[in-house]
């Protein structure tokens, strides 16, 4: 799919997400980005935040060098070193 001179591809969406640009990914997808996974019990830190949270069991993503990937969404950092 193309938007003007830019080809919208899965690689472009992944690039947006790797850069923490969820707004750009949503704009190019035409909908918000979504993640699927099984909800699992974890550290129960959401209780201290005063609003419900969910932990999703997802595969660990690593870059080609074998390091775990990290990201930023809405100014919040996530991922593991």
Give a nutshell description of this structure.
The chain has 81 residues and is α+β, with helices and mostly antiparallel strands.
Task: Please provide a written account of the structure.
The model has no long low-confidence stretch (mean pLDDT 75). By secondary structure, the protein is α+β, with helices and mostly antiparallel strands. The protein has helices at 10-18, 22-29, 46-49; strands at 2-3, 6-7, 38-40, 55-57, 70-73, 76-79. Strands 1-2 form a two-stranded antiparallel ribbon. The chain has a two-stranded antiparallel ribbon with strand order 3-4. A two-stranded antiparallel ribbon has the order 5-6. Helix content is 26%, strand content 22%. α1 packs antiparallel against α2.
What helical percentage do the residues reach? 25-40%
Low-pLDDT parts are none
* Class by SSE composition: alpha+beta
Number of domain modules: 1
SS strand fraction: 15-25%
- Number of helical segments with 4 or more residues: 3
Largest sheet: 2 strands, antiparallel
Average pLDDT figure = 75
Spatial strand sequence of the major β-sheet: 1-2
Helix/strand order = EEHHEHEEE
Sequence-ordered SSE layout with sheet pairings:
Elements: E1 2-3, E2 6-7, H1 10-18, H2 22-29, E3 38-40, H3 46-49, E4 55-57, E5 70-73, E6 76-79
Helix pairs in contact: 1-2
Keywords:
81 residues, alpha+beta, two-stranded antiparallel ribbon, 3 helices, elongated
């Amino acid at each position: 799919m193309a938007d003007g001179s830019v080809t919208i591809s899965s690689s472009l969406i992944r690039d947006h997400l790797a850069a923490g640009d969820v707004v750009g990914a949503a704009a190019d997808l035409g909908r918000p980005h979504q993640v699927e996974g099984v909800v699992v019990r974890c550290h129960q830190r959401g209780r201290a935040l005063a609003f419900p949270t969910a932990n999703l069991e997802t595969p660990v993503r690593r870059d080609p060098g074998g390091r775990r990937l990290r990201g930023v969404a809405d100014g919040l950092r996530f991922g593991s070193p």
